[in-house]
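Reopening closed ticket. The problem is back. First fold of the pair:
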Amino acid sequence: MSTPSARRIAVPITSAAVVAGMVFTAAPAGAAPTTTPFTNACQASATLTVHKTAATSMTVDAPASVDVGQTFTYRIQPGGSSYPDSESGATTTNISRLKVDYEIPANATFVSAAVVPGTGVNIDGVAPSVLRVNTSGVADAAGSILRLSGDNQVIANGANNSTNSEGGIRAPKLKKDLNGNGTGGDSWFRLPAVDVTVTASGAGTITPKVRTAGSAAAYNNNENYYSFLPRATFWGSTQWAPTRCTPRDGQSAGLNAGAGALATITVNDPGPVIVDSTTTLTVPGTAKTGAAVDLTATVTPAGAGGTVEFKDGATSLGTAPVDAGSATLRHTFTADGTRSITAVYSGDAGHNGSTSAARTIEVSTDPVIVDTTTAVNVPATAKTGAAVTLTASLTPNTATGTVEFKDGATPLGTAPVAAGVATLTHTFTTDGDHTITAVYSGDATHTPSTSAPGTVEVSTDIVVVDSTTTVAVPATAAVGAAVDLKAIVSPNAATGTVEFRDGTEVIGSAPVVDGVATLSHTFTTDGDHTITAVYSGDSTHNPSTAAAETVR
């Protein structure tokens, strides 16, 4: 490349060329690397102003496509460059303060960037590094530019600027090509590759580019993406030629392909993750013709929305919304007979639909109405002003309806019956003995009943002791077959409730009676189920959690 001079004093600027067969060692997995050849137009400012063009390239190795929210890495590297041994009587010395600026691409959140070891060739000086900088060239965690340089030692627009002293990344005069072979003249070098890690923000594309936004697009501007400082000697005199380059075909030409997308990464929106659901149906065993009963569906996992359609065979009985994992339809059967009821969950944006196993209801004008017994379970003592749990257990546990709790003749509150249990949290406000009874309302197939009284001794000062809970479960269970899960609470004077969990999922709760809580549960999936039991505590016993046991 010819180099103009002032008074025959050579002022070299770099001669860049496309280097074929560039190898990206250990590059990120993706599509084939994309190499974009283009022309740089550069101005070197020495004794005379010199305008030159040189062929160059950028190679990007990036995945062809990613998903929204995916974090990935792409690699970008300039092509090789060279400068001559001498020109017009002047002897070149080296090129230093090399800098390349890349834009952080739109539609991506920056994570990190790093120089790829072993990818620079024939360079020395300050070790190459990558800084995130703003348009002023100052290190900035919110900056829009990634700068490859030697500690931001550049000719301008950096933290350590100079146009007449060596610094930063240097390309020494080696007279070698990129393979280390002697040339006898030109000295070749290649700046290292940079790995850029980002997270895809939205559907569309991500396009790595060199810096050309704003003033960086202007010819011979301190913000130009590529700049460096050539040095030469002529008759013992040092000549400096600070050089600034932009991707264009000439001084007055517009920006060329080097200023555009150097690669195109498609960002796909895979949509929401949809998980399977399980629907379990609970219905009374019998119902009276013309009398309303509750049909209840429980949908897991927690957080499922949508609706549940209840069916009698193929006939739709109605639809109810899923709220807190449950949907209930109150329905009146108008004809005698055996009804096969199913619950069909609609699914939602994040959950697939599911259908329960069928449950049978015997409907008749005069159904068999069974007697019930109600047992109340209350703590022996309670602290004035502290909440305690009052529990009523119904036999048989198919009973529905409500239970009213009373302190003598005074109503304390009402709770629904679920799986044969009704629970009320209550705070006593006065000291003394309180006689508690539980009055079951009855339903279409179960007679009302009242429990024997239980006594709670309420005082301002009571002793609260620690409890220990252990879980007892069968080693194996069949899918679809009910098994008993038990929790033993010590000391056995403890009252309250135990919540049973399968991993982190709550599968039910049961009252503590004589130190034991029992839950009948049906597993709906194969595999190991890790069961724990969490005791609630009461006014005189602290809560406790059992060690996990596995059911296969």
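Second fold of the pair, where the issue appears:
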Amino acid sequence: MSAAPANAPDSALLVPSVSDGYGWATVSAALNKQITASQNRLKYIYGQLNRTDIVLGSETLSDLSDQIDNITSVAQSIQTQAASYQTVYDSYLDIVGAKTEGESAAIVAQRAHLQAVLQDIKSTVTQGKLLGLQAKQVQLEVQRRGAVSQKELLSERIASPLSLGFWRDLVDEGPELRLTFAPPVNNGFAGVLYNWPYMLGTLCAVFLLTALLSRPVYGMLRMAEGKIVRKFTGDSLPETHQSFIPVALSGLFCGVIMFLLWEIISSILSLDAGRSPVLAHGIAGIMPLCGFILGAGLPALSRATAIDGASQGSARALWGGDWCIAIFVLLQTLFMIIGQENAFPVTARRLIEALFTLVVTSLFVWMCRRLTRSTDARLAPAIYGIGWLILIVTWSAIALGFLAFAFAVALWSVAISVSLASLMLLSIAMKEFTSRTFSVGSLISKRLSRLGVHSNRVAQFGVLLSGVVNIGLIIIFVAICLSEGSLDIPVVADRVQSLFVGQTINGVQFSLNTAVYCIVLMIVAYYAIGAFTKWLESRLFPTTNLDIGARTSILNIFNYVAWITVLLLVLSEAGVTVKNLTWVVSALSVGIGFGLQAIVQNFVSGVILLAERPIRVGDLIELGGIKGDVKRISVRSTEIGLGDGSTMIVPNSQFITSAVRNATLGTSLSAASATVTISPRADATKAQLALMDMMTKREDILQTPPPGVAISAITETGITLALSAKVSSVRDVGGVTNAIMLDAYRVLQEAGLELGKPC
């Protein structure tokens, strides 16, 4: 950035110079380097996708996808930074203003410089947008390749193991298979599994050490549980008490122990050295889960089962299942890594995967059979049937030559069953922990009650905490389902992260963090709107002269406006714009034309009722022969309380299109009237005075305006006197009229006045 001329005044130095350290020149070079580096990375990724000499596995495609996501983030960052500088320099240009006659040369130079810098900034913004668009296109190609690769893998068919061709191909792959186990030679080549004896010995040692440590770890956790309960409650746990908490904690501890043992021994033996350290790292990623299975399974499925409520038959039926599951999980991970690294020839790899599938499905069906015969568990027959279905499908696929499909089904079966069992154990343990710790009579509840916290609030917190943990476990299960059957901890963690990062569908970013933010926003809005509504009702409205109808209308309008605002904020945070909602608006227009017409009509009528207030809450109305008090007015319907105690819900459109009688609109006063006929021979003046005296003495009628008694008709059969009075409420008219008639009859009888015949 060039400095201002030397003869320019200080007021003309509007633009930061290079020496200031915060002008555009200080960041433009860095942004251009980021753009160049990102474009080169995209070219490299695109070149990898177009290579024909290698087969891109799912792991490689996932890594390329992560790189593209980083490039997309860089493109968005470049656009944001450049746009912020564009705003600043636009402000500078507004200060300089348009060109005028007689202005100084410094101002002219500043204007020209600002225009040049703005042009450069706009060019950078355009390059950032192009970079993001290119990254999006390459990402779509990666996703397409992944879908095609997975489809081709599942539909791959080779010679059936029941045919001689399969075994001839296996024999032909003998030399290539021996290279997989070849030791290092002078040229540096080494087979992927050249150190398999050390790796196998290390795995056996790690498994045995973890199994030996699982019982002592569980015993220490049981003792710790008893000491904690005794310290805080003063009671000792009975001998028959069983709990899921020590079982789950034992699994977690053993998972950490197994991982550390593998890392230590593999580092000592340098098992990660060689041609493919991915194998050692993949085993390290699955060690925590294998340790969890042994740490939780050995005490839980022992002959003296540690699970509360589990029968001895279940323990005997599942005894040894923990070892089998842990070994299957390890072998599954090894086979997936071998497939990704192309460590074995195709036929040999498919044979190993087929043998794994046969063993897994057979043992699963056998274990389900034992469980069905030894226990009366309700789910055992259903699981037994599912096991037989998986066995028939996989064995048939192997016989037909679809070995990759059979192996994929086995992977999914192991992954889903193991993840469900492990996550359910953690969920049950967490539920037991929260129910004990935060129950109404727990120690924490008693301590907090002294501070003014109600025990029910503590119990609610425990339920919410358990629910949050369950939601997290569900997210982990979804991530496992999306990891193509992989139980490797880093792979699952990467899938969880991708769930939170989200994906863009039709221009809308879907991610868990956005969903959580929107949910939290709606929860906060719910309590904030409720608190403000309560403040209006209890603090503000009592200081005003507003009637109950006006208060209800204000509260309803405020609630609707507030929730519409919250909805707009949620949609904005989710990235939903009018352009994204075009198809929704189109669908709504068709729906309104057919099925939603009445709903929209009632909604508009409700808005009119709340705005014009022809009827209000508390009014006595009559609509179509129905008479009652208005209890509630919403935007769709109005609730009317009837005389028998029931409530009638009337659509708002009827109040707009029909005639409505409002007995309390305008004033709360109402008139009570009655007529009395006396004999034509009776003294009309005496009767009038007696009735007027009776009216003035009644407390249930108003004396202002004063009541009246007038002669309304004189006939041969009698003289008719009309009694009229004002009452404070229209709801009292019936009772007051009945009382006036009874008193009029009594007064006329006492005065000796004969009644006549009505006209």
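Update: turned out to be a display glitch only; the data is intact. The CA atoms of residues 41 and 47 lie 10 Å apart. The chain has five domains: 10-154, 196-497, 505-576, 592-662, 670-750. Please close again.
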